Each structure stands twice: as C-alpha cells, then as structure tokens.
Amino acid sequence: MNLPLFIALRYLFSKKTKNVINLISGISMMGIAIGAMALVVVLSAFNGIENLVDKLYSSFDPDIRISAVEGKTFSWDDFPLSEVREVEGVDFVSRSIEETVLLKHREAQFFVTLKGVDESFLEMSGLDSMLFEGELILMRDSIPCAIIGYGIADQLNVFINHVFEPSQIYAAKRTAKGQLNVDNAFIQGPIYASGIFGINPEFDYKYVLAPYEYSSQLLQHEGDVTSAEIGIALNANMNQVKERLAKVLGESFVVKTRFELNELLYKTNKTEKWITFLILSFILIIAAFNMIGSLTMLIIDKGPDLKVMAAMGMTPNMIKNVFLWEGILISLAGGVGGIVVGLAACYAQTEIGLLKLQEGTIAEYYPISVEKLDVLAVLVVVVIIGFLTSWFPAQLVAKRRASSFIK
C-alpha cells in the first residue's frame, strides 16, 4: 500500500486525535454527505420528470415525423411509402393531416386541431394508457368517430354516451377567401366521440383525432397529408433510423425525431438539471471548507509525527501527500455515505412512494429515476472537492513544518 495513504488511513480512524479535531472533521464529513445525498436525489428527480415528460409526449407524438420542406401538405401518392417501410427499424407508417377547425356540441363551441390519422397511428401510440374514458376506435359500424382531449370534452360538455347527438365540425372551405356568406364559408361534418384521452393541457385542450379519410375530405385535402408519422421497432435506435430515412427521402422532406420536435422542452430540462448540479456542487464546496481548518489543526497536532516521518526518510512531498490523502478520504467517506443514503431514499420513493403528487396528476407519486452517470458525476465532484480543499493546508502548512525539522 502507498505509505502516505496508509498513514492517512491510520489518522482517519485514530482515537488519539483530539476531540475538537474529530468534531470538525465529522462536521466536514457530514456536510459533504448531506450535499452528496442532495445531489443524487435532485438529479434523480430531474431524470424522473424527464422520463415522465417523454412518456407523455411519446403517447401522442410519433418517434419520427416526416414533413415537406415547402408547403404545409404534400401528396401521399408522391411519397415513397414502399421504400420507407423497407428502412431498417421502421415498424409503423401512418398518414396524418392537421388543421384548425371549430368543434361545436349543442350550444358550446371550441377551436381545436383536427388530426386525421390511420388505425396504425393508434397502434404505435401510447394513447391506450392515457385513455380517460371510452375506446380507441376511429370507426364504428362505418360511422366516423373521434377521440378527443379531456380539456375539449370538459369545455363542450361532451360524453361518449351521446350516441344520438353528434358533435359538429366546421372546417373553412379552401375556396372561401373573401366569402361574405358565412354559411357558405364552412364545410360541416358530424362526428361521434368514441373516447376521451388525458395527457396534459397542451394536448387535452387542442387535439381531436378522427379517421384520415373523413378528415381529408372535410378539409378538402383528399390525397394530401401534413406529415408521415413513423413508429420504430422496439430495439431500434431513433437517430439511426432517422438518418436512414433522410437518405431515402432526399432533400424534399424534413425528418425529425420526437426529441427534435420538442427540442426546447428537453433542452430546458437538461439545462435546469445541470444548473442545479452546479449550484449544489458550490454548496458542497462551502460545506467542505471546514476541512481546511480540521486538516490544519491535525498537522499542528501531529507535529512530533512529522519528525518521525522525516527520520524514516520520507520526503517533504510524501509528508504533504499524507494530509492530501487525509482530506480526500474524509471527502470520500462523507460522499460515499451521502450517495448511499441518497440511493436508499430514491429506492424508497420508487418502491414505497414517500412523496405523493396532487390528485388528478398523471403520476400518483413523484417520479424518480437513478442514472449511473449521475452517481459517478457526484462521486467525481466529491473527490475533486476533497483534493482542492486538502491541497492548500497540505501544501502551505505541511511542507513548511517538514522543512523546519529536515534542516
């Protein structure tokens, strides 16, 4: 074993050290432990939120969306569907057309986004887990049905048992520019609610899902699509599939992953996570300042030992490393202890659910997800802080004390 490390270990567990030094070292260790625990818990909480957000968005947004470079829509007949389906990793391909329409039920009305989709969209989405009421069906006995957001249903007082009272969709005619007669400016179509989904307000107050054929006809965009929505295979890499699709489609189409569609959301969460990491690391540094005092006092207390070390042939640099290791060991002891407690708290939250969310939220308990890289990052920070806070007393005090008796 490294001699300075061996001596540092003996000092760490020594009972002969004065109580005040042990107390200050214990306070330093406790501060580092609390900081490390907080880092693990907070980073895991951010991971849990990110995973929950991803789950919510993946239940509606496709893994990959393909849209035209120019214009709002493109012809489905001109789309290389067979080539796209042959791309490795592609599992589902669905047509989609979107437009803002007016949805009316009885006397209530609300502007919504009508999204016409194929049955394959329902297969690749996670809406089944977000269904609040009803069924995930787009056609019932050849009658078009709609799956609507909970917020829209609440605004219009729509229930899925209104089988004899359909809602009405009003879509602006493409040729209605400058039309003075309001009655001739819209195309009207009835729709029955088959299901109500609840994801988050961004979707719940915006989207109405309906059959593609019904929607494209109502919007006077038969044969056109707003986008092609891709569902990838279970073990496929999203970015790799995107690159393969981009090669097949060329420059006429824009290919984006789910993360790129909501880039600001994911980047904001990542930024908040690492800003919090830096703030807590700074607090950890402040907590470790006590260690400078405890190491300085330890060096003074171990003055006779320094003479023995020098007599044994230890160089000033080796003596300095004894106290450098001492600081690192104190940091590691506190850091590892804090990490273990933090992991235990995360495990308890995951398995038992210590912290509940408000009723009506998508998750019953606060989401937690521990990532190995986060734990490693906390451990690295603890080691760096231990090195920096022990460097100064070891460098400035131990070296000077050693030189005084080496002469």
What does this protein structure show overall?
The chain folds into 2 domains: 3-57 and 266-406, no CATH class; 64-258, no CATH class. The chain is α+β, with helices and mostly antiparallel strands and 407 residues long. It has helices at residues 3-12, 19-58, 81-86, 119-124, 150-156, 201-204, 212-218, 238-249, 258-261, 263-288, 290-301, 303-311, 316-351, 372-406, and strands at 64-68, 74-75, 90-105, 108-117, 131-134, 139-140, 143-149, 167-172, 186-197, 207-211, 224-225, 227-232, 253-257. The chain has 14 helices and 13 strands. α1 crosses α13 and α12 packs across α14. A hairpin with a 2-residue loop joins β3 and β4. The two termini are 28 Å apart. The strands form 2 sheets. The protein has a 6-stranded mixed beta barrel. Strands 2-11 form a two-stranded antiparallel ribbon. It is elongated and about 100 Å long. 53% of the residues lie in helices and 20% in strands. The model has no long low-confidence stretch (mean pLDDT 85). The longest helix is centred in the first third of the chain and has 40 residues, at 19-58.
Terminal residue distance: 28 Å
**Sheet having the most strands:** 6 strands, mixed, barrel
Radius of gyration in whole Å, from Cα?
A: 32 Å
| Poorly predicted parts | none
Shape summary: elongated
How many beta-strand segments?
A: 13
Q: Beta-strand level of the residues, as a percent range?
A: 15-25%
| Alpha plus pi helix count | 14
Question: Strand order of the main beta sheet, please?
Answer: 3-4-10-7-9-8
Structural class: alpha+beta
Tally of discrete structural domains: 2
Provide the residue-averaged pLDDT: 85
Helix content: 40-55%
The H/E string reads: HHEEHEEHEEEHEEHEHEEHEHHHHHH
